[in-house]
Amino acid sequence: MTSTQRLAFLKGHGTENDFVIVPDPDGLLDLSATAVARICDRRAGLGGDGVLRVVRSAAHPEARDQAGEAEWFMDYRNGDGSIAEMCGNGVRVFARYLLHAGLVEAGDLAIATRAGIRRVHLAKSGDVTVSMGRAELPEESVVVTLDGRSWPARNVNMGNPHAVAFVADLAHAGDLRDVPPFSPAAVYPDGVNIEFVVDRGPHHVAMRVHERGSGETRSCGTGACAVAVAAARRDGLDPAATGVPVTYTVDVLGGSLTITELPDGTVEMTGPAEIVAEGTFEAAWLAGALA
Ligand SMILES: N[C@@H](CCC[C@H](N)C(=O)O)C(=O)O
């Protein structure tokens, strides 16, 4: 594809974690980190927490081995252009786009991601449910530091890395845009997403998040899953041990997600996904962004 061809985009969000969707079924677009960062720029670009490039699995070198199970690959990029393994809100919006574009039918479908296949239940409208795989909780304890204060945190991997810190007040997360928190680079050599969590009631928590590669966002789906599993273990609950599923409501700045951990260890996430606009990139601007 040359940069002078018309390139379509859509804009969508899931609990206000917003994405620019770029359909590129044949994988022809050379989307550099710089181009993604320019597209996600909220003043000089379209604006978004990240980009969802929609590519046929068979046309993407990282997804060819998943093509037998999942026709479409979610090539997710953070707002700074970096690549991440997985995006929970993104995969719901991705599925909603596939239906919107007539590329799939409502019902059950599989989507290829860098973290492996994710199975999605997609109704014609309303919430989308995704099976997010198993959470891994390495034993080592980690510490989250922000603006001179520190909290113990739980290391949770949902395909991508998270540090979950329970705090007394979400205001302790301060202004995450100005002062990014950090956690030990030895544990997280590729960076980490950091969640600050408070209790709201039984099986009900609220979080704020600083995302690797995107800064503070209004929601993070993988983060909400990590938070729910960390909260369950803290509360002495483990579905693998009891055979009883455990559900938490996780409030985020942009809404609410329902997270259920099943006895087989898999985590299901249910939440909204909306397409809000579609258009085409202005050719001259796109040529500059892709240069
Ligand atoms: N917002 C996402 C997570 C996106 C990736 C993350 N920033 C990372 O680098 O791991 C979600 O909804 O899960």
Automatic annotation (TrEMBL):
Which EC number(s) are documented for this chain? 5.1.1.7
Q: Where is this site: Could be important to modulate the pK values of the two catalytic cysteine residues?
A: 162, 211
tRNA-binding found in the keyword field: no
Keyword Cytoplasm set for record = yes
Q: Which GO terms describe its cellular component?
A: cytosol
Q: Where is the active site?
A: 87, 220
Q: In which pathway does it act?
A: Amino-acid biosynthesis; L-lysine biosynthesis via DAP pathway; DL-2,6-diaminopimelate from LL-2,6-diaminopimelate: step 1/1
One BP term from GO: lysine biosynthetic process via diaminopimelate
Q: Can you tell which superkingdom this protein's organism belongs to?
A: Bacteria
Pfam families, sorted: DAP_epimerase
Identify the residues that bind substrate.
17, 78, 88-89, 160, 193, 211-212, 221-222
According to its UniProt record, this protein's enzyme class is isomerase
NCBIfam families, per the entry: DapF
- Write out the similarity annotation: Belongs to the diaminopimelate epimerase family.
Q: What does this protein do?
A: Catalyzes the stereoinversion of LL-2,6-diaminopimelate (L,L-DAP) to meso-diaminopimelate (meso-DAP), a precursor of L-lysine and an essential component of the bacterial peptidoglycan.
Specify the protein name. Answer: Diaminopimelate epimerase
Question: What is the organism of origin for this protein?
Answer: Streptomyces auratus AGR0001
Q: What is the lineage of its organism?
A: Bacteria, Bacillati, Actinomycetota, Actinomycetes, Kitasatosporales
